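Risk mitigation, structural track. In case the binding assays with S-adenosylmethionine fail to produce interpretable data, a predicted complex structure has been prepared as a fallback.
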Amino acid sequence: MLSIPRLEIQDFPVAQTYRQDVVTGLSSIPKFLQPKYFYDETGSRLFEAICELPEYYPTRTEALILQTAAVPIFQTTGPCELVELGSGSATKTTYLLDALVQLQYPLVYVPVDVSPTILQSSAERLLADYPQLIVRGVVADYEGVWARLPRFESRRLLVFLGSTLGNFSQAECETFLAKIADSLQPQDYFLLGVDLRKAVPLLEAAYNDSQGVTAAFNLNLLARLNRDFDGNFDLTQFEHWAFYNKQLHQIEMHLRSLCPQSVYLSKLDLTVEFAAGETIHTESSRKFDLTELGGLLTELGLPTVKVWQDPQGWFGLLLCRRT
Ligand SMILES: C[S@@+](CC[C@H](N)C(=O)[O-])C[C@H]1O[C@@H](n2cnc3c(N)ncnc32)[C@H](O)[C@@H]1O
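Fallback model:
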């Protein structure tokens, strides 16, 4: 009998766009860097530490919802392959895999993440824990190739957890969701976890933790640029700054220059001048309204079939079906 390998990982490097994105972002006014560049090995590890922080409610709240929602999700979808965008450590994915085991459905998991180290380590851990699991990982930007990859099961459940959708602006979010709808076939499903609007102190505390882990995560981006592009950012001359922008319903994370300074990235031959107080915008984390989001998904051909929330109404999990 032929046996198929349980783990395969395809790699679609993003190196070329990385260089150009850094040049563009640091040459713009105001300056910005895309959040996908947080996730080198250290960044991925720091994000896992953020998920454990007492102030960072999203991960444990979404996990709580998934515990009760996982079996009903697959009772609705029937057997299907699980494709997860921005899978990270895939810790919460285990609730979905447990439900597949309980329902005796096949276990085919396609994690898609820009970070090769977290993808490899999470895949190995899951394979050890689920003897019947097959993993077909994809190291790629989830805005790219994954949609063209072959299917393993006739029906697909596309999973996007952790409110990572919130990293997109309203316009980008609409484009991204339209692409998702386009990539799915009728009767496929889309499972989306989103952080909801709530009291500002709760939101701001989640991105300004008392142990300084979020600050370290944000500043690590500069350490990464120093390493990758032979740069001379002095990390002691920048500070983490996170606040809630009420107009745009989003937490914004910035790195703020503490003094006038000039930074040189030798491998890009790029000099970047900073005024005192000038910032690099490194991440937005939009907070959603379920009614608005449900309306948009319906317009795009992804009507919601079921929504779960935690008792405090902090986080939402939407199961949508491609019509
Ligand atoms: C906020 S974390 C969420 C991780 C996990 N889904 C969770 O809910 O805890 C975002 C994850 O998406 C990955 N990521 C961010 N931007 C990406 C992109 N453009 N393409 C692929 N992966 C990306 C990161 O490497 C990271 O693992």
